[in-house]
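Hi R.,

Here's the chain you asked about this morning:
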Amino acid sequence: MRRFDEIPGWRYVVYALLALALIFILRWVDEEDEGDAESVREPLVGIHVKYKPGMVQNMTAVDGTLPRRLFSRIHATTAAYDDPRDRWFIVEVATSRVAETLQTLVLDPSIEQAFVPPPDVLATELSPTRSLVDVAADDGEACPITTPSFESHQGYLGPAPFGIDAPAAWRRGALGQGVWFADIEGGWNAKHEDLHGERITHAGGKPVSSPGWREHGTAVLGEVVGRDNGRGVVGIAPEVERIFTSSIGGTNVADAIDVAAESMRAGDVLLIELQRTGPRGSFLPVEYWDDNYDAIAAATARGVIVIEAAGNGGENLDHPAYKGKLSRTRRDSGAIMVGAGGPPRDGFRDRERLDFSNYGSRVDVQGWGRMVATLDYGDLQRCAEADRHYTGRFSGTSSASPIVAGAAILLESYARSRGKLLGPAEVRDILRASGSPQTGANREREPIGPRPDLASALSSIAR
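And here is the predicted structure, written out as tokens:
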């Protein structure tokens, strides 16, 4: 038998085979690259799906993938049969497949509803007080050795009707002892000098790293639980024993609420600092979307007091477009919904609805929606260290809602000192009945409720 290298033209055969192999490899690489590029161009979108009662067992794969549970702590073996959280799932599909998949899901007789939630947005109206150039120039400036007190800027702490009269609770020994607090949003700076970082526990979700989210969350914590140390600001309830943060990063609003609520007890206070764009193009409170509503309702059912920002859409929440989903005549999540009223300073009309605040029969109470002094942002004090930034201009239903959360904590703290436990409905009723009334010519048509008055509220418990 002749050896291969003795065959005439053997080199050409080898070259041809090598060329074919190279062509095959290049085509395979191109196909892989196209697949990678396609995956970059086609991010996955999560469709929220709620099955009808008793229909979860009929669930089938969508585009070859089984839906995953929307509520991460809920399992078929632990959820009650009639617990609506057990019927929520997420279907992840490529962007180009969303419309077709949605249509298929909506027509499925076992499915109650399916939708793609809008992006979550912070409920603040904070406007930059200085240009970014000015801020950048200040980043290297030195702070005073000791941060001065900014309590004189915190008019919302003061006597009613201008503030909520937090000292009325403090004088009775109620500073938040015995009550836990949770904040639902994106990010926080637990190392700020005016926070008890050792009391803060992150309950779930991946904190959002962008400065806007971090500043917002830190400002909220400052209003509610800022340290009483003679420096910076004073939180409304500075002696809250445990503070939970729960982020929407890497998860969804409903699950973030549920995870935090699972860590809490009856009488503890949970704050939701988010809003979304609704069907009329304006911001709405998150309970308009049914998965969030079910999460809130589950929290209040276990006795957790939920405070929810009404949103900055300037919308009438009783508008027919919302189909009664934000009206207690149809349903009630049990949350205390908060609007934004004017502060008694800087040309604003005290307790009158600010134009951006949502309003309606569902809005229970109001807080200052402008000129709130708290942590971070840096217009009141800005230094090289972000841990020592302060603002006097936090705003929106984002600034109003923590004021109400703080009032609820003090109310509950005082009740516990007297051997009582107030439920969500009781706290809501007391704050509504005892507060300083809304002002303004349109208060009847555009209701946002009264501003809490703790002196009056505490008296109603003492009787």
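One quick note: Residues 151-462 form a domain with the Rossmann fold fold (CATH 3.40.50.200).

Cheers,
M.
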